[in-house]
């Protein structure tokens, strides 16, 4: 579904050159939920912007269903961290969700259906006529998720979407993402700096190195598919996986080679 091949991004800001991403290669199959974690500043947002077609890579390519991404592709939706800046304050909740559907040129009756379904799916059926600023932070982020879901994307990109909400709301939203993913069968690339969140949500976790960034490790999350906050997080395997990811991120920060790279060296 999504192929990232040899992606490199260098920012050229006058005298200052930043090689944010050195060489990233990974693939997402249709219907997968993959989380991406890495040390702060390792280029997670840069990567997501390249995947979303909002930023042109210096070299390498992104393919969506085999077609190169050169601008925002029609089958992709993004949920950003800052819900306060991604919703239009002068539009009601329902109108915010409807806007991309209008741009897609869908007939009015179908738009109505999609808006109603998406708001019901995120538990906001009764907030359709409210303005975003009348809602709590967690509710606003639900609106942003509803807007992405109503768009019926093939790939959903999420950039630290729960970083600005409280822990309780965050846990609810994590479960909402997994429930929607199960229901819709959408492919999700979820960027987070939260190791527990990555292991709780993902089928796989891609661990990035420090900048200039490469994929340090691809980890399969071999936890049962049915997850819940209490039991999954108390599962000994969950603890083992989160400890492993934490160790890798600490090692990445110290610039130590990844286990596979060390193995390669020994051979
Ligand atoms: N527009 C830009 N111009 C120049 N450098 C940039 C630009 N955007 C990002 N960078 C640099 O690229 C590197 C990666 O930044 P990016 O925001 O992608 O990382 P991140 O992993 O998302 O960070 P965080 O975890 O702190 O949110 C950083 O060194 C940053 O300073």
From TrEMBL:
rRNA processing found in the keyword field: no
GO molecular function: ATP binding; ATP hydrolysis activity
Occurrences of domain ABC transporter (ranges): 2-235
Keywords noted in UniProt: ATP-binding, Nucleotide-binding, Transport
Statement: the UniProt record of this protein carries the keyword Cytoplasm: no
Gene3D superfamilies with a match to the protein in the record: P-loop containing nucleotide triphosphate hydrolases
SUPFAM superfamilies on file: P-loop containing nucleoside triphosphate hydrolases
Record-given protein name: ABC transporter
Underlying gene: ssuB_3
């Amino acid at each position: 579904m999504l192929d990232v091949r040899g992606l490199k991004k260098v920012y050229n800001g006058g005298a200052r050159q930043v090689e944010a991403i050195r060489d990233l290669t990974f693939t997402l199959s249709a219907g997968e939920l993959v989380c991406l974690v890495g040390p702060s500043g390792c280029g997670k947002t840069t990567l997501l912007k390249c995947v979303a077609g909002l930023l042109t890579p210096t070299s390498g390519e992104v393919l969506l269903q085999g077609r190169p991404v050169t601008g925002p592709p029609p089958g992709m939706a993004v949920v950003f961290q800052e819900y306060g800046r991604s919703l239009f304050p002068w539009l009601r909740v329902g109108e915010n969700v409807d806007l991309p559907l209008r741009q897609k040129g869908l007939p009015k009756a179908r738009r109505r259906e999609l808006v109603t379904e998406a708001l019901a799916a995120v538990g906001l059926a009764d907030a359709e006529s409210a303005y975003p600023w009348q809602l709590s932070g967690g509710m606003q982020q639900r609106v942003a998720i509803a807007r992405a879901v109503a768009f019926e994307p093939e790939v959903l990109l999420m950039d630290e979407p729960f970083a600005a909400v409280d822990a309780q709301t965050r846990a609810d939203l994590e479960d909402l993402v997994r429930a929607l993913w199960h229901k819709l069968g959408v492919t999700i690339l979820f960027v987070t700096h939260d190791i527990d969140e990555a292991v709780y949500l993902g089928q796989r976790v891609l661990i990035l190195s420090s900048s200039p960034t490469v994929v340090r490790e691809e980890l399969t999350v071999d936890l049962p598919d049915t997850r819940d906050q209490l039991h999954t997080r108390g599962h000994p395997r969950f603890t083992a996986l989160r400890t492993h990811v934490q160790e890798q991120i600490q090692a990445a920060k110290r610039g130590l080679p990844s286990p596979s790279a060390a193995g390669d060296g020994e051979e």
